[in-house]
Amino acid sequence: MENWQTQKKYIKTFNNEECALYTHNLSVFYGGTVQKLFDVSLGFKKNTITALIGASGSGKSTFLRSLNRLNDRVARVDGNIMFHELDINQKKINVYELRKAIGMVFQKPNPFPKSIKENITYALKANGEQDKAKLNQLVEESLRAAALWDEVKDKLDQSALALSGGQQQRLCIARAIALKPEVLLLDEPASALDPVSTAKLEDTLKQLRSKYTMIMVTHNMQQASRISDYTAFFHLGHALEYDTTTNVFTNPQGKITEKYIQGSFG
């Protein structure tokens, strides 16, 4: 009987040129000795949405946060994270510059306690952009890309905290893409949203797919099947299966993957 210790790994691979980002034997240790992620090697194809699925504690958020070095202060991360043929898991890497190229949207919307406009311009100004016309253009472009412009264009100077949860999350996406990242990481971005807001967020992500490579942690199997091109299944710190979403959901290769998809655990 196949179990998590005996299941083979079924990992689809790509040519490196096709990948916006890939990892090789990525492992994560907390407290120096407690291993939470085991030798994960995955490649993420450009201009696609990849869903990371698995039960709580399976390692998917730990993996996601490693991709732009958010685990640096809390864990030891071994292995390679390749971005433009550069291993970004090196101490010499400027993580602040890296996070412009690999943006992050968190589970709970976290707009700054500033105006809607200032939420977008804050990071742009911090990165040296002072031209008001250019800033205004970037604000509109980013909000349009996040499907939020028509809802907020007449209240840009109002507090972002007055927006609904779904609007706040789309504002956070706009804030991230204002810096023109290549990769966007999303950690359960719809978990705190109602169904209507979730649908709007999913539509936004599908529209952004042509410009960005997105990697998203989700517990929502229906959401993964609706919007992702590829799906990686994590279990107890191991990436056990990675393929097109259609294949993972309709023809999983491993018994553990199949049981999870069927709702037998998680």
Low-confidence stretches: none
Helix/strand order, N-terminal first? EEEEEHEEHEHHHHEHEHEEHH
N- and C-termini, Cα separation: 20 Å
SS element count, helices? 10
Mean pLDDT: 93
Envelope shape: globular
**Cα radius of gyration in angstroms:** 19 Å
Summing up helix and strand content along with how strands pair, one would put the structural category as alpha/beta
Sequence of strands across the biggest β-sheet: 1-12-11-5-10-9-8
Outline the biggest β-sheet: 7 strands, mixed
Description:
This protein has ten helices and twelve strands. It has helices at 60-66, 95-101, 116-126, 132-145, 149-152, 165-177, 195-208, 221-227, 245-250, 255-261; strands at 10-11, 19-30, 34-40, 43-45, 49-53, 76-83, 86-87, 102-105, 183-187, 213-217, 230-235, 238-244. A seven-stranded mixed sheet has the order 1-12-11-5-10-9-8, sandwiched between helices. Strands 2, 3, 4, 6 and 7 form a five-stranded antiparallel sheet that branches. The longest helix is centred in the middle third of the chain and has 14 residues, at 132-145. It is globular and about 60 Å long.
